[in-house]
Amino acid sequence: MNVLALDTSNRPLSVAVMADDQVLATTTVTVNQKHAAQLLPIIEELMHTAKLTPRDLTRVVVADGPGSYTGLRIGVTTAKTLASTLNIELVGVSSLAAIAANVTTDQQLVTVLFDGRNDNVFAGVYRIVDQQPVAVIADQHIAFEDLLQKLVALDEKVVVLGDLDNFQDRLVQQLGDHFVALPAVWSLTSAAQVGRLGQALPPVTDVDAFVPRYLRLTKAEADWQKQHPEEDHNDYVEKV
To answer: Could you read off the pLDDT of 31-42 as tens digits, one per residue?
Structure first.
């Protein structure tokens, strides 16, 4: 299986070209958040390096959220366009799970969090089983204090990855010896991990209906709901 994997869900941009579990070419950029301008040239360069043409691809895998709204739209739109144009499979992978996959210790508990502002986070908790992150607490947008209480209740050592700057002191205070910190590089997204996880997942059944998993209403959605309180809110994205 020849796979193109993309992650533009946050500040880093990561792309990988893979043949099954072998990484043929990969690039991760962390210094400039110019995903719209950089993504396609990087894809083209990596495909050339891997000596593959677009028609050689069998699957495109994209980190579908949570994360930056703009970043997610860029990655998901690119992945959908390629899947539709090339008539290949499309798979979405949790942006949080892709980072949790950096940890490979079997049975290790891992939580990944992104700063959602106002002391809220996007977070998921996983257990590593046969080098795969298995959800223990589903990805969600949650008040940090509520997440912290859930971690305390698990009562075991947990590796915490992601955006820790505003939260590490409270994690240490509440979790004590159960808090496990790793160097910052472990929190860096890797399209190779996105591709690895995506090869084990079923493709989406409807490419056109595939949308990012924001896990929180955008301002436009919140405003729309206020203006249309009588409407069904389940499929807002499809309404527009």
So the answer is: 877 899 999 999
pTM for the whole thing? 0.90
Backbone CA torsion sign across 137, 69, 159, 155: negative
Tell how far CA 194 is from the center of its chain. Answer: 8
Determine the pLDDT at residue 218.
57
Tokens of 52: 């593959």
Closest CA to 49 of 76, 17, 72: 17
Q: Half-sphere exposure of 188 toward its Cβ, with a 13 Å CA cutoff?
A: 15
Q: How far is CA 27 from CA 17, 30, 150, 158, in A?
A: 9, 10, 35, 29
| 196 burial via Cβ count (<10 Å: 0-12, 13-18, 19+) | buried
pLDDT tens digits along 113-149: 999 999 999 999 999 999 999 999 999 999 999 999 9
The reported pLDDT for the residue numbered 239 is 39
- Phi-psi category of residue 73: left, alpha or beta, with phi > 0 → left and psi -120 to 50 → alpha: alpha
Tell me if 179 sits within 8 A of 172, measured CB to CB: yes
CA distance 157 to 159: 7
Determine what percent of the chain is predicted with pLDDT higher than 90. Answer: 88
Amino acid in position 122: F
Distances (CA, A) of 79 to 5, 45, 119, 166: 9, 17, 32, 33
DSSP state of 25: E
Alpha-carbon gap, residue 164 to 228, rounded angstroms = 37
Task: Tell me if the bond preceding 41 is cis, omega within 30° of 0.
Answer: no
Q: What is the pLDDT of residue 232?
A: 58
